[in-house]
Amino acid sequence: MAKVETVTGPIDPDELGVTLIHEHFCGRDEATVRQWPHLFDEGSDYDEGVEAARGVQQHGVKTVADPSVMFLGRDVAFMRRIAEETGLQIVPSTGIYTYDALPQYLMNRDADFIASCFVHDIQEGIQGTDIKAAFIKCAADEPGVNENIEKIHRAASRASLQTGAPIMAHSRPASNTGPRQVEIFLEEAVAPEKIQIAHTGDTDDLDYIEKLLDAGVFIGMDRYGLDIFLPEEKRNATVTELLKRGYADRMFLSQDAVVGFDWFPPEVVEQMLAAGLAKNWTMSKIFEDVIPVLKEAGMTDEQLDTMLVENPKRWLAS
Questions:
Q1: Reading across the β-sheet that carries 218-221, which strands appear in turn?
Q2: How many CB atoms lie within 10 A of CB 71?
Q3: What is the pLDDT of residues 190-241, one digit of tens each?
């Protein structure tokens, strides 16, 4: 198996250990922060990041994969500070997180050019550092797989073929994006085992989920704590049924928690929490609230190890 890149250097896949596959140590509106840096408190975010890292370490987590890329305020030097402070292994990524718009620079260039940007991050380093990306992130959401989104997906595919890096695709089951995303990757000849369709756990439609699984891809059951998309009880019931159907070797458990998340004003966040739209949305939630319930429902230790240890190793080092 190939080495896996982290913000503190490459490691052997067997060193990954218990891994959260989808968490963010960066989650900033990068354009706003660049123009008005007084709005951004890096010290507070750093403290929050260190706290989150140490929190998951108390549950035996050794590694966190961070899909913070363009438009999410990716800052690999910031991630490296957290990793060096705590000893947590943080796996960085390249890609573009957008539901529709692209900057003019990329609007006027093709998928192959965008792929070359991703390849640079994987082979040369990110943001002028020697930190290399381990996987590629792209996204499709409510606007669907429109022209810009398709271009990014094809760029991600071509970068994957050139480098061997796997792809994580943010999806929106409510907009039925997953099947089209998989279709594009397969059209571009990406191997199914290199594809992860994130946020598949936002639906309890088993027919939709099994159609994705039939293509041979991985799926992310990775938004625990975000009841705004699907209540926790339904998430647990869906994971339990998929485990019974034999899909442990194709699922990831995670939370998609975000350090320094600045999309909403504090008062709006408080209203959302009061309304129950998010519940204990932290990097430690699955260990505190979810795994005990899944075990009561029949999940075995072997199945849990598959989802948190073996699947990340297979996907990242495939």
A1: 93-95, 135-139, 167-170, 195-198, 218-221, 251-253
A2: 19
A3: 999 999 999 999 999 999 999 999 999 999 999 999 999 999 999 999 999 9
Kindly state the helix (H) or strand (E) to which residue 81 belongs, with its residue range.
Answer: helix 76-86
Distance in angstroms (rounded) separating the CA atoms of residues 166 and 189: 13
Q: State pLDDT tens for residues 48-82.
A: 999 999 999 999 999 999 999 999 999 999 999 99
Query: Which DSSP letter does residue 230 get?
Result: S
Q: Distance (Å, rounded) from C-alpha 90 to C-alpha 83?
A: 6
Cα separation, 51 vs 213, in Å, equals 35
| Residue 228 token pair | 């705004």
The set of residues, in sequence order, having a beta carbon less than 8 Å from that of 113 and lying 6+ positions away, is 106, 155
How many Cα atoms are found within 13 Å in the side-chain-facing hemisphere of 244?
Answer: 11
Taking the complete model, does pTM exceed 0.90, yes or no? yes
> What residues does 195 pair with on adjacent strands?
167
CB neighbourhood size of 77 (10 A)? 12
Which DSSP helix (H) or strand (E) runs through 252? strand 251-253
